[in-house]
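Sample A.
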Amino acid sequence: MCVGLVVWCDCGSFWWRTGWDAARKRPIYAWHPAVEPERAAARIARRYADLRAAQTTPGTGVRP
């Protein structure tokens, strides 16, 4: 299953996309300091759960 979540680290922070700013026509990102990996993981897991809950199975319209 693909939910569209990519996380990366720039050696100081973890980054992930959280939405789209239609007015500025660009993505919105969240970040968390890399020195707190457990807290970053918890935030990322919540984002993953949100994306998964909002996703439907292609062609069926049914949520997993």
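Sample B, a different protein:
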Amino acid sequence: MKNETPDQLFLYAVRLLGARAYPEAALRQKLARRAQPDVVAAVLQRVKHLGYLDDQQYAEGYARLYAGKWGAAKLRRALLEKGVSREIVDEVLAQQAAEQNPVEEAVALLMRYPSRHRGEKPRAIRFLTNRGYTFSQALAAWERYLEQPQ
């Protein structure tokens, strides 16, 4: 296509953002398929100025959505893959770490999904580390899980 006017591209961007949130990098990619880079930059600037596009808010919402399901490492990887800047990711994850206890979240996961580990320590540790928890957090969670009444 690559020939849309700035107004057409702006309406397309607003329609996309109305359906779901996007980080700036992902929206830039979608818009780049329809217009020249200078038009894309102008539209992104306009959308950001209106407050429709904010990577900080996107990262906070994403972290809230997956809190308790994923550990910090998996959240970091996912946000960086989506194009959110490293500074924003670090800030959001630091804020989340201050608010939540990852070991308690990991214990809750072990209790919620007993079929994933079947009471076996290696499976439980692997399950938690695949979810983004550190090895030490997974070990601590396993110890607390064993203390829980079944």
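Observation for Sample B: The chain has a mean pLDDT of 93.
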